[in-house]
């Protein structure tokens, strides 16, 4: 019978995995996807080649892990708010989306894909299928659930999800792709989320959605 790895060994393996992912992200950004070898990543991560190959047999597998890691929603809470209060649910999703987009490394991940996708279109497909779309689908499902609960009126939950996430990312994230020092303060970011929520309530909210008839930001007189 094969012995199960101890908690210590699992923790060490997780630490090495994190080091590999961080080193690969830096090197892909600095030297390009094609210009970075697995051997160089192992050296930068401070692990042996055998350790790296044990976790990631190919560079494509490593990139998939990077995408999955950065798009992972894991803050100790349920990924989807319970339907029944559209305002509260959208506020929760909006704050989580900001945290996701502004985490260290997310902008670098997008820059890698944008730079390399003409030569390696599979990188764009990986980012889309393993990162963006699974997250988008959770938001679409939430809005569809609010519609089913009668707290939102939606003709198309997919369109509504696109609108909500787009309003936030267009202020919080996309300028970062062109402006190296784009760092809006917490008040400006919170206002961007508030305004996106208010727009969604005005367009899709119902009286049962807790906010359709009063769309002022929380705390306003």
In short:
With 221 residues, the protein is mainly α. The chain is built from nine helices and no strands. Helix 1 (7-31) crosses helix 2 and helix 2 crosses helix 3 (49-55).
Per DSSP, the total helix count is 9
Shape: elongated
Largest sheet: none
Number-wise, the strands total 0
Structural class: mainly alpha
Share in helix: 55-70%
SSE succession: HHHHHHHHH
- Rg over alpha carbons: 20 Å
Distance between the termini: 68 Å
Average pLDDT, to the nearest integer?
Answer: 88
Query: Hey, roughly how much beta strand do the residues contain?
Result: under 5%
Detail the poorly predicted runs. Answer: 213-221
Topology:
Layout: H1 7-31, H2 38-45, H3 49-55, H4 59-70, H5 86-101, H6 106-116, H7 121-149, H8 157-172, H9 186-204
Provide structural commentary:
The protein has 221 residues and is mostly helical. It contains nine helices and no strands. Helix 2 (38-45) packs across helix 3 (49-55) and helix 8 packs antiparallel against helix 9 (186-204). The longest helix has 29 residues, at 121-149. The radius of gyration is 20 Å and the shape is elongated. The N and C termini lie far apart (68 Å).
Notable characteristics:
mainly alpha, disordered C terminus, 0% strand, 9 helices, 221 residues, single chain
